[in-house]
Design a protein that fits this description.
Helices cover 33% and strands 17% of the residues. With 292 residues, the chain is of the alpha/beta class. The protein has a nine-stranded mixed beta sheet with strand order 1-2-3-5-4-6-7-8-9, sandwiched between helices. Helix 3 (126-135) packs across helix 6.
Length: 292
C-alpha cells in the first residue's frame, strides 16, 4: 500500500483505499504492530465506516478502544458504499459482495500480522454481509462473529412507520426508531446527523429478504456467535421466544452468546454506552482467540 492510498486522521486511525477486482474500496483502520487479533467492522444501512469512529468522540470509537486493548480494527465501507458507490450495480449479487469484502480484508492486511485471526463485527443491515461471510466456506477460518442490532421480526410500530415512510417519503419517524431514546446519543448524531449517506439500491432487497436469509444462513455458521440486542431496541422484536429461535438456528456454531446492551438504543456504537459495548465485544474476541 503506497502513500497515496493512506489519509492520516491522527496517530491511531487512518483512512485507506484499496482496489478489489477493479473497484476502489475505502476503510478506516487502526493498526497495531503485534495485534492480539483483527476485528473487521461492518456498518449498517445509510452510513459508512465513520459509524465506528465518531468524529470528536474518541471515547466512543471502536477503532480507538480496540487498538488500546491490542487489536487491529478494519472498519470497511461495505460494497456499494462510499468509494465504491459508483459501482453499486456490480454488487447486486450477494456472493459478489462477500468476495469483495474478503478481498478488501486481505488487501488491507497485506504484510500485516493477524494475531490469533480475524473476527467479524456486523451491525444492523451490515449483518447481511457479516452472516454471509461467516456462512461462506472461508468463514470457517474466522475467530467468530458479532451480530448486533438485528432480528427476525420487526416490531409492529416499526412496520407501521416504515409503511408510512414508503408512501409519504417522510423519514423523520424512522429516525425516531433508530435513534431512540435521544438522550442516550450525543446531540451531533441524533437522527443520524453527520453520519448518513446515500444507500446502494441492493439494500432494498436485503431489507425485504433479511429475516428469511437470516434463518437460512444461520445453520451454516461454524464459528462462535455473539448476538447483541439493545435495551431500547425499537426496530426488532427481542422477546424470549424469538431470541430462543435465533439461538436454535445456529445449530452448528460451537458457541452462542446472547448479550443485552443496557443504556443503548439501536445504534450501539455511537451512543454513550458505546465504550461499554465495544469492550464487551473485545472480551468476546479474546475468549474466542483463547479457545483457538
Amino acid at each position: 500500500m503506497n502513500a497515496a492510498d493512506v489519509g492520516e486522521l491522527d496517530d491511531t486511525v487512518a483512512a485507506h483505499t484499496v482496489e478489489v477486482h477493479g473497484v476502489q474500496t475505502s476503510a478506516l483502520c487502526s493498526y497495531v504492530e503485534r495485534p492480539r487479533a483483527v476485528i473487521v467492522a461492518l456498518h449498517g444501512g445509510a452510513t459508512t465506516s465513520r459509524y465506528f469512529d465518531l468524529e470528536g468522540r474518541p471515547e466512543l470509537s471502536l477503532l480507538r478502544t480496540a487498538a488500546t486493548l491490542g487489536y487491529t480494527v478494519l472498519a470497511i465501507d461495505r460494497p456499494g458504499y462510499a468509494d465504491s458507490f459508483e459501482c453499486q450495480e456490480r454488487f447486486d449479487d450477494p456472493a459478489t459482495r462477500v468476495d469483495a469484502a474478503y478481498g478488501a480484508v486481505d488487501a488491507l492486511l497485506e504484510g500485516c500480522s493477524r494475531g490469533a485471526g480475524v473476527f467479524l463485527l456486523a451491525h444492523s443491515a451490515g449483518c447481511d454481509l457479516g452472516l454471509r461471510m461467516a456462512a461462506d466456506p472461508r468463514g470457517a477460518s474466522l475467530l467468530g462473529v458479532e451480530l448486533a442490532g438485528t432480528g427476525t421480526r420487526k416490531q409492529r410500530e416499526a412496520l407501521e412507520i416504515i409503511k408510512r415512510m414508503r408512501t409519504t417519503r417522510n423519514r423523520g419517524a424512522i429516525r425516531d426508531l433508530l435513534w431512540y431514546p435521544e438522550e442516550l446519543y450525543p446531540p451531533e448524531v441524533r437522527g443520524g446527523r453527520s453520519l448518513t449517506c446515500i444507500t446502494p439500491r441492493y439494500e432494498a432487497v436485503v431489507a425485504a429478504e433479511w429475516p428469511r436469509d437470516f434463518m437460512r444462513l444461520a445453520p451454516e455458521v461454524r464459528i462462535p456467535v455473539r448476538y447483541t440486542y439493545a435495551e431500547h431496541e425499537k426496530v426488532w422484536e427481542t422477546d424470549d421466544d424469538l431470541r430462543a429461535e435465533i439461538k436454535a438456528a445456529f445449530l452448528a456454531a460451537p458457541r452462542f452468546v446472547e448479550h443485552r446492551q443496557t443504556g443503548s438504543g439501536h445504534n450501539m456504537s455511537v451512543g454513550f454506552a458505546a465504550a461499554e459495548y465495544h469492550r464487551g465485544v473485545v472480551a468476546f474476541v479474546e475468549a474466542c482467540a483463547a479457545r483457538g
